[in-house]
Every structure is written in structure tokens, then in C-alpha cells.
Amino acid sequence: MAKLLSCVLGPRLYKIYRERDSERAPSGVPETPTSVTTPPSSSWDTYYQPRALEKHADSILALASVFWSISYYSSPFAFFYLYRKGYLSLSKVVPFSHYAGTLLLLLAGVACLRGIGRWTNPQYRQFITILEATHRNQSAENKRQLANYNFDFKSWPVDFHWEEPSSRKESRGGPSRQGVALLRPEPLHRGTADTLLNRVKKLPCQITSYLVAHTLGRRMLYPGSVYLLQKALMPVLLQGQARLVEECNGRRAKLLACDGNEIDTMFVDRRGTAEPQGQKLVICCEGNAGFYEVGCISTPLEAGYSVLGWNHPGFAGSTGVPFPQNEANAMDVVVQFAIHRLGFQPQDIIIYAWSIGGFTATWAAMSYPDISAVILDASFDDLVPLALKVMPDSWRGLVTRTVRQHLNLNNAEQLCRYQGPVLLIRRTKDEIITTTVPEDIMSNRGNDLLLKLLQYRYPRVMAEEGLRVVRQWLEASSQLEEASIYSRWEVEEDWCLSVLRSYQAEHGPDFPWSVGEDMDADGRQQLALFLAQKHLYNFEATHCTPLPAQNFRMPWHL
């Protein structure tokens, strides 16, 4: 009877992975009382085969879930319509509640029938036995057996906790339950007294900004968090996850962040291979509709690196909502997991981000300054110009205030706090992070990210003459145009390197540098072009084109 109840309340099982011979326990090792034997993988298909009763009950419950999601998103319009028609009176609401209660009872009955279908299936009974054993005792053998199943991630046991003692030995106090530290935006009206009257005047605007950010704004910024989109992408995500587990020997793990969100991660270990880059770990930060199952994780994988992918809060198996604070909390526990559980030193970790993932990548670089390098692909400096691009001009004040207060993705500000090597990849046909049209390459916000970084690190070099020549170089949309501008200014790379190395040897590596203050205009222009070319390279593609492995390279450093 207990097993039947477990089948009724248990998670949905999607797939049974092919068990690799290297993962099977040695035959001479006796089993522990809490471990569960697994049948040979050849006897079962890799796709879970539900019985007819479970299959049909699952379809009904999935359809009910979709209808509930549609009702949730359309509820404001529905309530407005019902109010106008007079259907919200007590005499109309009471019968409706009876219908709703009857429907809930019917759905509960369907769930029970699904449980009976699972109970009659030896595959599911075997899975639920392993899951219960793992929750009782997270031994290595039990977790190895559980990793052969793909199921609803809510029921996956937590593998790493943000409060684990070993995870904070070297930290500077660590995050609190309120979250990690973020850079806060400056007040819109500096010098204004923060009196009670001013607070009351600002209250309607603050309420409006809050409502916009938590309804339309968050879903526009992170469409991957919308349930209906995830439901449509589920087959693709399951296929991508199976590829990572079965072909790349990936290991899935659940991390608990300081805000209580559970973060879904996938780790592919290449340290045992002959390729030297396998000793380096690339942490991948996906875009606003990207998932590690099908995202930018494939590029460093093909290049031979060890890789750690993770999903934004509210994406696929991760819980929560993707606001900046939650994003930073998630990134913090991911980096801690890489250092203290996977065993990588910060000097062996590279942060690689695509598009909006640049926010968490730059936050990690700012917060963990010993990280080896940062690679930002198709990213931007600040969210406000891109948000203003897609909203009406009359909403300018509301959009700016909403972004600054609730959705402040200040990538450039965070990146300037990092002292290590940085590489920016600009896509010459980018249609997403340009503020005009894709053909106008000068409206690509990656240009602004480069300029802000160089102006912070080399303020004397990036004075008027240097800034002007770098802008000319950024106007080039092909390698031929780049080379033409570069050769026109006759940049002597050996001289530039000697100047930079001499300054570093005399003054140390910490930015900003005052190199170039005693240099003539021609020297500053050469140095500015040299530095721009080392920090950014063009990839002739649109925003969503996967980056080929041959284009994945480490940033330049002295």
C-alpha cells in the first residue's frame, strides 16, 4: 500500500538513460543495505514506456496544466470581463465554486488512476524504489543509479547547499538569506531630499514600475521562464539532456541557492582526457530563452573543455523567477559548487556567456576576481537602451525607472570591477542588441561595452584621439575592412606590447592604468587600436547563430 501511495504522489518519469559500463558497480563489491540493484540496461528501452492507464491519465493532467497556465495569464482580462457582465456576484460565484470543486475531485481521481498505472509498471516501481532510497541515504551508489533516470526535477535530492561549511571557508562573509551583494543604481534625481512628502509623491510611480516589472517586463526580458514555452520545448530539452548524459557522460546536480531557489546544473568532466584544455572549467551562462540542454554549452564542449551549464531561475528544472537578485544568487552557488564540490581552482575557471547571460557572468567576475577569464558573446553594456528600443517613446520615463529599480542589468559597470582577461565577441548581423537595424553595426551595444571597458582600464589611451580611432575601427563590419583600418594607422604591435609590459612591470597589474599620459597622439591611437583589437573580434553571424568551436578562444593577456 505504501508503494502504491508513492506511485500516486511520485514524480513523472520521462526517460531511462542507457547505463554506461564504466558507471556500473564492480561485481566484487557487496551492496549496501540502502542500495538498489538495477536491471541490465539491455532489457529496457531507453525511453520510459508508460502503461495505457498512466499514459492517458498523464495526458489529461498535462492538458489541465496547460489550461491552468492559460487561465493564469489571462486572469486579469477574464476578471475584468466577468465584472463588466456582473458575474462576480455571490449568487454566481457559489455555483462556480461547486463546479471548480467537482473538477478538482475528478482531477484527483485521474491522479490516483495514474498512480495505479505506475504501480503496475515494473520500470516505475524500480525507479521509485531508487528515488526513495536516495532520499534516505545519498550514497554514491544510490546517486549513481538515480542519475540513470530523467524525471521531474522537483523530486531530485539537493546535491549542494549554499550554507555547506566547506563552501564558505575562503569567502568574505558569504551571502545572507536576503541574497548576494549587487551594485545599486544611483538615484534618478540626485540631491533631492528623501522626505515623507517626496516618498508619497513617488509611490504611484513605484507601484506602477513594480507591477510592470513583475508581469509584462519579466516575461518579455526572460521569455524562457514562461511555462507554455517550456512545455512546447520539452521534447527538445529532453533530447538535449539525453545527449549530454549518454554521449558526454554529463552529471546532473541540484544546487540550493541562498534565496531558496533550486538550480538545475549539468557538469561534463574532461579532466581525464588527453586534451590539456580539459583541465579548465567553462561555466556557461545562457541567454534569455536559452537552456543548458540546447544552449551555448555545446561550443566549449566541442572545443574539449570541462563544462558546467546551469539554467536560470524559473527555467526548466530551476525554480524561482529570473530577477537580477535571484540570477546573482544562482550564479554564486554555481561558482561555489564548481570550486568546493567539483574541485576546480578559481584560476582554472572561465566564465562564458551569451547575450543576457552577460549579467551573471560579469557579476561572477566582479565577485570572484581570481577567475581566469571572461568571454562575452553577443552581450551588451546596459539594458536601458535596449528596453527603450522596443517600447513606445511615451513610456521612456516608466521604462527607465522600471529597469533601474527592478531589472537593472548593468553589465559594463560590473565588468569594470574585474581585473582579469576579457574577450568580447561582436556579431556583425546582430538583430537583438542593436538599437536601430542589424545593418547599423555602430548601434550594436557590444561597442559600448568595449568602449566603457577600455575607458576604465586605459583612460589616458582612450582620450579624444584614441576614442575616435577605435570608433572608426568599430564601424568595420568585415575582416577586410578591419585590416584596412588597422594597416592605415600602421600599428606596431611589438612596440605596443613593450610599452604595456614596461608599465605593468613598473606599476603592477591593477587597473586603471595611466599608460599613455606622456605619449603623443599617434602613439595613443596605435595603442588604442591595438587594445581594441585584442579585446574584441567580429563573428559574421546573427544573434542566435551557434558559435563554432574554432571561434572559441581564450582572451588576450600580457
Automatic annotation (TrEMBL):
It catalyses: Hydrolyzes glycerol monoesters of long-chain fatty acids. Residues 24-43 are annotated as: Disordered. Residues 3-152 form the Phosphatidylserine Lipase ABHD16 N-terminal domain. Residues 281-407 form the AB hydrolase-1 domain. It is an enzyme of class 3 (hydrolase). GO terms for cellular component: endomembrane system; membrane. It is a multi-pass membrane protein. It comes from the Eukaryota. GO terms for biological process: monoacylglycerol catabolic process; phosphatidylserine catabolic process. Residues 26-43 have a biased composition (Low complexity). InterPro entries: AB_hydrolase_1, AB_hydrolase_fold, ABHD16_N. The keyword Glycoprotein does not apply. It is found in: Membrane. Keywords: Hydrolase, Lipid metabolism, Membrane, Transmembrane, Transmembrane helix. Its main location: membrane. Its EC number is 3.1.1.23. The chain crosses the membrane at residues 60-84, 96-116. Phosphatidylserine (PS) lipase that mediates the hydrolysis of phosphatidylserine to generate lysophosphatidylserine (LPS). LPS constitutes a class of signaling lipids that regulates immunological and neurological processes. Has no activity towards diacylglycerol, triacylglycerol or lysophosphatidylserine lipase. Also has monoacylglycerol lipase activity, with preference for 1-(9Z,12Z-octadecadienoyl)-glycerol (1-LG) and 2-glyceryl-15-deoxy-Delta(12,14)-prostaglandin J2 (15d-PGJ(2)-G). Belongs to the AB hydrolase superfamily. ABHD16 family. This is Phosphatidylserine lipase ABHD16A.
